[in-house]
Amino acid sequence: YFAAHRAEDQLERLIEHIHRVAPGVPVILDAKRGDIGSTAEQYAREAFERYRADAVTLSPFMGLDSVEPYLAYEGKGAILLCRTSNKGGDDWQMQRLADVPGQPRLFEHLAHLAETQWNRNGQLGLVVGATYP
Q1: Residue 90 and residue 86: Cα distance in Å, rounded?
Q2: Chain centroid to CA 26: how far?
Q3: 30 by DSSP, 3-state: which?
Q4: Which pLDDT tens digit goes with each residue over 59-118?
Q5: pLDDT band at 49 (very low <50, low <70, confident <90, very high)
Q6: Phi, psi of 30 (to 5 degrees)
Q7: How far is CA 117 from CA 59, 74, 109, 114, in A?
Q8: Which residue, among 101, 59, 102, 66, has the nearest Cα to 84 in the 3D structure?
Q9: Catalytic residues
Q10: Can you tell me the distance from the alpha carbon of 83 to that of 24, in angstroms, rounded to the nearest whole number?
């Protein structure tokens, strides 16, 4: 919303205000970014250097290399879309993975990766739709 209304400066000031008046409250930039390479590096720079967010939401469906640039920022969090509550979430998130032992659903496999091998520095969290049963 901020970018669509050319209000990035207002977003910067809002986050600065939150850090000033409520320093113990983490600021999560709900950006749902998902890209690789230099583009992901720039998005991470935007989230953590420009906006000074404490964490950012990401779409991890391009793989670990779309998440790694965010993990380079020590003390910052990356919150991965895992099991969303929107109707279209079933299109991908509920699919079973035939080449993974036990054939977990995509969201289950992603949760496992986020808990284990991807979560090298304890920086990962998950977006899980609270309205989904």
Answers
A1: 8
A2: 14
A3: strand
A4: 999 999 999 999 999 999 999 999 999 989 999 999 999 998 999 999 999 999 999 999
A5: very high
A6: -85, 75
A7: 17, 17, 12, 7
A8: 59
A9: 32
A10: 28
